[in-house]
Amino acid sequence: MFAKLVLRMNNRIVYLLFFIGVLVTSCVPSQDLIYLQKKGDSPESAISPIALKPYRLQTNDILSITVKAIDPKLVEIFNNEISTQAATSDQLLYLKGYSVDDHGNVRMPILGEINVLGFTIDEAREKIETLLLKDHFKKEAGIYVNVKLAGFRYTVNGEVGSTGSKILYQDKVTILEAIANSGDITIIGDRKDVKVIRQFPQGAETFSIDLTDSKAMQSPCYNLQPNDYIYVKPLKQKSWGTGKTGIESLGTIITILSLATTTFLLLK
Length: 268
Description:
Layout: H1 2-26, E1 62-68, H2 81-84, H3 90-96, E2 98-99, E3 105-108, E4 112-115, H4 121-135, E5 144-149, E6 152-158, E7 164-168, H5 175-181, E8 194-200, E9 203-209, E10 228-232, H6 236-240, H7 246-267
Parallel strand pairs: 6-10
Antiparallel strand pairs: 1-2, 1-5, 3-4, 6-7, 8-9, 8-10
């Protein structure tokens, strides 16, 4: 009698431990949800000088090019509508901007084909300005050239609130800003291993960044470059299907136990 009682107690302990184990392992720890934590030997201050490499133009980039002079009529032919009015439409940017073709050229009135592949924005501006002053205008005309990317474009996929290609109208964008603009990473998204695929004129390179670590701000992909592709993979809790929080996991376990009990009683 005593042995049976001990066996029953042992079985209950095993079931209880199994229940607790499933409940704990199926939940997403809060430490996996907090951005930029100080881990291990992370410095007290996360502020450190970071040398940002300038973006170099690639094919399919769209440029906004504005040419100004003391007499505006002299340079009207160079300025598309995108440069002379507030443009908020992506379609307008595409139709009226200067697109970098497959050969790395932009085609401008009078100047014709200008190769800007691999140039920085400043280098492209200086090249256009030099060509204008060399063959078409005197220095006294007061030629002023402004070159900008027609929006900071990037793509987000995976476990975020809103996937797809995005455009921000600013010069610099961090990965946290891009993710926030995409509805943040979901609770089952892996913040410790976010992939960033970056295009270079010579090919693509993949970076990995842990957004839960404050050292992420020193990563070469913390500050994005135009046309970056961000992928947030799911945590293994998603494939288990047991739930993201303790309440969801508890509900899943209760459902399984209820089903098992009902099946046992029907068979008996």
